Amino acid sequence: MLQLNNRTPFEAELTALNDETGVETLYVIVKASFTEGWMLADEPVPVWRADEYYGEPHESSLRYPSEIHLGKTATDILVEGDAWAPGGRPVRQLPVTVSVGRVSQSLMVFGDRRWDQGQISVADPFERMPLTWERAYGGSVAEGDRRRVYSERNPVGRFASAQCTDRSVDGELMPNIEHPQALLRNRDDSPEPVGLGPVAPHWQPRTRFVGTYDQQWRLRRAPFAPEDFSRRFFNVAAPGLVYPGWMRGGEPFELAGMHPDGAWTGQLPEVPLSVSAHHGGRQEPLSARLETLYFQPFKRTVSLTWRASLSCPRDVLSVESVTVSMTRQPR
Question: What region holds the DUF2169 domain (predicted)?
Answer without folding.
Answer: 22-307
